[in-house]
Amino acid sequence: MHTEVFERWIATVETRHLAERTFQEVSRSLRSLSSAYVERRTTLAEGAALSGAGKRAAFALFYGPLHFLLVRHIAASLPDAGRVTGPLTDLGCGTGASGAAWASVCARAPSVVGIDRHPWAVDESRHTYRMFGLKGRTHVGDASRVALAGRGAVLAAFTLNEMAAGARDGMQSRLLAHAERGGAVLIVEPLAGFVAPWWNRWRQAFESAGGRADEWRVRAELPPIVQKLDRAAGLNHREITGRSLWLAGD
Length: 250
Ligand SMILES: C[S@@+](CC[C@H](N)C(=O)[O-])C[C@H]1O[C@@H](n2cnc3c(N)ncnc32)[C@H](O)[C@@H]1O
Description:
Blueprint: H1 4-17, H2 23-38, H3 53-77, E1 88-91, H4 97-104, E2 112-116, H5 119-131, E3 136-140, E4 153-157, H6 165-180, E5 185-189, H7 199-208, E6 212-218, H8 224-232, E7 240-247
Parallel strand pairs: 1-2, 1-4, 2-3, 4-5
Antiparallel strand pairs: 5-7, 6-7
Helix pairs in contact: 1-3, 2-3, 3-4, 3-8
The structure holds S-adenosylmethionine.
């Protein structure tokens, strides 16, 4: 069973993104988007994933809800993730789905700061935070250069794999330093090894710092539009999978 606010969010995303294009157009774009994530990965660092209205609609209607359901499950399952205090900085926030998911399982919803290099994503995340009743701020910017001050929570969901290797390596020491100051850090990436060949190095670094690594396979009830797109694009998300690195901070 989904919460009312989740269903309302999906309904408005559906209304807005299907107003100007047909379901068939979106499912064609979804095929192209998922092939960018799998076969044309070198184009991701240039922002190719969100480079057309069709792909953006496919991202909002399909990957956004899937990421929401996965991150909500992860945040609800990790001890202490529900106790973080804000701000919750969402690096590469996309449509804001993952940050909203984490914030929505917190005992006291933290304020959320969404940062993305894509202006469209930043607009979408503003809408998402509003739908979930979250206090949110959003900026267009490079997540690899954001100052991580204070002890708030930091999320990078499906973002680090799109960064250039040098920028990602630089992020690691900044994220570990953030956790050492008492802030919480949650990284989420797909299970597929080729997407994040750097995972084992990051895993060792997080574990050495007292953190944990997990793999997730979640059987979630998918919203009807996600099920329909999944079938139409020949994908199979009856199980939503991912892996995470977690440092609880103080
Ligand atoms: C696959 S999407 C994931 C979005 C969101 N975190 C989620 O879980 O649904 C990756 C996002 O990271 C953003 N991104 C990638 N590299 C970035 C960077 N260096 N700075 C800011 N945003 C970045 C992309 O624009 C895109 O919105």
